[in-house]
């Protein structure tokens, strides 16, 4: 096999790699279902990001293809078999509290700061440049290499569903959208809406007009707000609110507007696969509200949320906790909490469950509990777990390449997140986050270290070359 200095090849292209990464990060590629167009079914931002990648690939001599304006691919090489590199260009909402504009892609302290820097635009560009290096070196390959680009990974995966309805399934592949060394097990993902049944009877000294926290199942909400109509002592509620939030060391605000009391809480956002890394503002505000004399429907809702979700991300109180050796603990993140006076409350949650967990049994347990408490499961979307055996050619090759570049042992990891790797029978998540680095995906001031971006590019380039043999 030809001996190539992959690191040197990346260094030669460093300036262009950084420029192209920043250009991609400048685009506010958020799902926007309110403003769709025939050629942008998920909104202009995600379509613009897809177009940038397809145009860049065409300019560099790859064969581009737009698949229904939901996904696309860039391909080169020849052969019967297909190696897939699965990336996405959509991002989660930016959230508050950034030091710099989330889409400015500022470089400071040898880091690029932007929403999507580590998840997944930075890694997408690293993988793109890896393909470009292999192509420009004219190396002989026995497989075709295809980068598949999605635009709805952070929501409903409509991009990959549509893509694989119309396009070839790769024989093997990887997604540069998680952690190094190698992720060979991904938990199942069940997104569930639990909705309160209307009761009718209303009494209480405090009336909840509206309560809202969170936008996505897979994000820990960092903000919560409630509007209250208080029949008796408004100042008493404000004092109790202040005391509660100070006790928990949470940033909070209160003000009166048109005679109504508005309470706000700030938490810490994080990826919903590990709720303990964040502080769920909605759960803290719900717990506080559960202790007030509320109108009865609201009281039932907030007591339910507090009893079964507050300070319990493992489903213990719900009776659905589970653990296995392959992939760890079941986790629950209530990412979308809402209560409206006229219609009652709802909880939108993501449950990340272990590889050996039987989700049908878990759903039945959950169903029995919520029915007893005056709620119902209205949405249940289940994505099954994914597992690739260590002995496979894919994993053995990636282990060897990783160890060559880092001098460290390549061990296998299980995660609660879902990557596009699970779309493939033989697919794993592979980088870009190196061991020991903080995971800043979905958080404010998200960044990628430039040295890590370059190192990942070199690892991806050699991996593509060796997997395509």
Task: Explain what you see.
There is one protein chain. The protein is α+β, with helices and mostly antiparallel strands and 469 residues long. The chain has 2 domains: 6-187 and 386-467, Zn peptidases (Aminopeptidase, 3-Layer(aba) Sandwich), CATH 3.40.630; 191-383, Alpha-Beta Plaits (2-Layer Sandwich). The protein has 11 helices and 24 strands. It has helices at residues 6-12, 14-25, 44-59, 121-136, 158-166, 234-247, 281-289, 296-309, 359-372, 393-406, 450-467, and strands at residues 63-67, 71-76, 82-88, 106-108, 111-113, 144-150, 172-175, 178-179, 182-186, 188-196, 206-213, 223-230, 252-257, 260-266, 323-324, 328-329, 331-340, 344-353, 375-383, 386-387, 412-415, 427-429, 432-433, 447-449. The strands form 6 sheets. Strands 13-14-12-11-17-18-10-19 form an 8-stranded antiparallel β-sheet, covered by helices on one side. Strand 13 and strand 14 form a beta hairpin. The radius of gyration is 24 Å and the shape is elongated. The chain starts with 5 loop residues before the first helix and ends with a helix. The relative contact order is 0.18. The model has no long low-confidence stretch (mean pLDDT 95).
